Amino acid sequence: MSTPGRFLGGVAALIENDAGHVLLMRRAAGRDYAPGVWECVTGRLQQGEGFETALHREVHEETGLTVTATALIGTSHFHRGPPSVHTELIGVIYRCRAADPDALRLSAEHDTARWTGTEAGLALAAGSHPAEVWLRRLLLRHRHGPDGTGFELG
């Protein structure tokens, strides 16, 4: 008999504008995890909350935007910090379309944002931090589709 898992649920949103550019934001310097690192919208589910409800809540909290989820990009399994039952996260990654990209307003979690193409996004995420490695994989998946290894981005 296996032991039931204990983990957090999470969502990520790769938000596109009408030009096909995606929204990337830089984590503010004072953040506890990955300060100064570029990312898309990410967040954890609240107890009893569904993935799509969490998606819309997190997008609105971090950006002020209203989005439509247009596709599932993949899933994710990682630890947000040193591996433990308190940092293990299972996530669902969505492609979204912003209803009004000009309505963007950042929360205190991020200090700047850019609507960018894939190549420019890859350049922003050129570091070795695990969050940057993950973002590069996500941007490549967005550009090319699944790579034949499944839908999990790590």
Automatic annotation (TrEMBL):
Keyword Cell wall biogenesis/degradation: no
MF-aspect GO terms: hydrolase activity
PROSITE patterns membership: NUDIX (PS51462), NUDIX_BOX (PS00893)
Residue ranges of domain Nudix hydrolase in the record: 5-139
Gene3D superfamilies the UniProt entry points to: Nucleoside Triphosphate Pyrophosphohydrolase
Keywords per UniProt: Hydrolase
Protein's UniProt keywords contain Hydrolase: yes
Cofactor(s) this protein requires: Mg(2+)
PANTHER family: 8-OXO-DGTP DIPHOSPHATASE-RELATED, GDP-MANNOSE MANNOSYL HYDROLASE
The protein, known as: Nudix hydrolase domain-containing protein
Organism whose genome encodes this protein: wastewater metagenome
